[in-house]
Amino acid sequence: MTSRWPEHLFLVGCGNMAGAMLQRWISCGLDPARITVLRPSGRPAADGVAVVKTMPAHLPVGTTVMLGLKPQQLADVAPALSPVLNHQTPLLSILAGTTIAQLRALFPGAADVVRIMPNTPVRTGQGVCALYADSQTSPDTLAKVADMLAPLGLVEPIADETQFNLVTALSGCGPAYLFRFIDALATAGKALGLEAAQADRLALATVSGAAVLAVEAQESAAVLADRVASPGGMTRKGMDVLDRPNGLAQLMTETIRAARDRGAEMAALK
Ligand SMILES: NC(=O)C1=CN([C@@H]2O[C@H](COP(=O)(O)OP(=O)(O)OC[C@H]3O[C@@H](n4cnc5c(N)ncnc54)[C@H](OP(=O)(O)O)[C@@H]3O)[C@@H](O)[C@H]2O)C=CC1
Ligand SMILES: O=C(O)[C@@H]1CCC=N1
Known about the structure:
GO terms for molecular function: pyrroline-5-carboxylate reductase activity. This is Pyrroline-5-carboxylate reductase. The chain has 270 residues and is an alpha/beta fold. It contains 10 helices and 8 strands. α6 packs across α7. It starts with 7 loop residues before the first strand and ends with a helix. (2S)-3,4-dihydro-2H-pyrrole-2-carboxylic acid binds next to α5.
């Protein structure tokens, strides 16, 4: 069986998101000696991973490059990165908003260009990586990228790039909304009289347990919610607040729409 890992991985930027992917890949067997990280600060990325502060003149044969910097930083790095890519260097990008066409314009030497939209839970192997490539990218490269992402969690191919910002708004940004929800649940408990640490503990364990149950159960989340809500009981009264016309469903639609639309704005800023 061939290895799921590239011969060499070059990460251009390795902060919160690429760093989470890196940690998971290493814990699943990617040899740190096969990874180089470019980051201006020169801060260590992980034990055994080489860190450089400036663009190398050449990349080892068999290198896969992943862009892990912010979209606003891409224009600074592209002039130095483009010449070191060739048609055998798969170029992966986790940049929100930045389209394949924009990447191809900046990196004309790359043949295989793949957009990935991860989320931070990849660090535990419970993340989501959405995946899109255009028809110029070889199916073999795309399959290899999907294989490399498999230890990070759900790998979700996206057929239509115009949906990528919407997908980003849901699964890429989604953990932040869940973290906010955990905070809000605990804060509500505190506001109504619970001791702070206890409210935090209860909120976190409740969200964690409910998420695991939702994953493991055969029923939909809607059915599971109804099973908690005994007729005439306490939960129904609470859910009546969430379910009112301007309640949670509308709030989430507005939230996802605002995030999605920011992706298009970011692409237009290039
Ligand atoms: N955060 C998230 O949950 C998600 C983020 N993304 C995408 O990931 C990308 C990175 O976001 P995030 O990790 O949050 O950002 P961070 O700010 O945490 O990381 C940015 C990284 O880019 C590096 N960097 C800055 N300037 C340059 C440069 N000129 N050349 C090379 N590297 C540079 C930084 O270096 P240094 O370490 O030295 O400061 C840092 O490692 C974005 O494009 C974002 O859209 C996608 C999905 C989810
Ligand atoms: O906030 C952002 O732009 C990125 C995209 C998905 C999560 N973080």
